[in-house]
Amino acid sequence: MKRLKRYQYERYAILCRDAYPKVFDHERYGFSPDGRIDIHNRWGKTIIRVLWRDEGDAVVVFKGSQSVWDWLLNLVFIPTRVDAPKHAGYVHWGFHFLLRQPSIPRRINRHRDIANLPAGLQADLVHSRERSALNGHSVMEKLEHCLLPLIEQGKRLSFTGHSSGGSMAIIAGEILEQTYPNCIKRIVTFGQPATGYWNFKKRYRLNAKTYRICCDVDMVTFLPGIPLLFWHVGELLWLHNDKIYRNMPSLIRIFRVLISWLLRPISYHFMDKYIRRKNYFDKH
Fold it and tell me: Helix, strand, coil shares of the chain as percentages rounded to 5?
């Protein structure tokens, strides 16, 4: 498994963070002016952004929960079979439903002056023909429709997502990898809950290309919270106490965080804590 580099981590983390606001200027991140397609959920809200450069690979950003309804889906952890050409095991129903749900394009007031729209909405209009041709299709079907021309151009795909968006990236990556072998370059998720059952973990094809980032004791990464029923895939990169730990078991993670909290008052007495605060003097 290749190591995830710092600049790659920062790039995916920033894209995941900045994907949540309604206005998103993809050119700010170096993507081509026409290198963007937004895919919407059943409420017309953007759930996936497909981004690419004319020369280079494509990045697909999956957004996490955006509403109370989305959060409730996290609780529906009954098993459902992955919609892939070959049997890929069973996953969390709620996360798979996010890909199965119908995709409804965002409605725009036709009397509004297009020139006055935010850059994000103008980018939506550029691809209105593609979206209208796919009305009534699922999120996953639209995603595949958008990615197929990029795959045919030889672009490889990097998936990234936060929270339930990370689980969507895992499921979508497995489906596309089966359909278009070797199209996935890497998958990087942040704060992702466990996605599948044991049979999905055993059949998952992208373990060597999947990085699961967890920060300290992010409780979402322990959900659905049923030991030996739900399993994570890929390599865990646990960020704790200014270090990166790889594939640290959950129980040891919890134990170390508890010990860290108990010892924190003492740790502030060490000189390295004072040295790290040196930048404060530049501000006063």
Answer: 40, 20, 40
Distance CA 260, CA 273 (A): 15
Residue 8, classed as helix, strand or coil, is: helix
* Tens digits of residue pLDDT in 36-92: 999 999 988 999 999 999 888 999 999 998 888 888 888 888 999 999 999 999 999
Beta bridge partners of 231: 196
Quote the pLDDT of residue 33. 93
The full length of the chain comes to 284
The answer to whether residue 271 scores a pLDDT higher than 80 is no
112 by Cβ neighbours in 10 Å (0-12 / 13-18 / 19+) ranks as exposed
Q: For residue 79, which phi and psi values (nearest 5 degrees)? A: -75, 145
pLDDT at 282: 65
Peptide bond into 149 cis (omega under 30): no
DSSP element (H, E) containing 38: strand 36-40
- CATH superfamily, domain at 6-252: Alpha/Beta hydrolase fold, catalytic domain (3.40.50.1820)
Report which of residues 121 and 195 the model is more confident about.
Answer: 195
pTM of the model: 0.83
Residue ranges covered by each domain of the chain: 6-252
Question: Beta-carbon neighbour count of residue 177 at 10 Å?
Answer: 20
Q: How many degrees, rounded to 5, is the angle at CA 219 between CA 218 and CA 221?
A: 80
Give the residue among 234, 242, 226, 218 at the shortest CA–CA distance from 160: 234
Q: Cα(24)–Cα(18) distance, rounded to whole angstroms?
A: 7
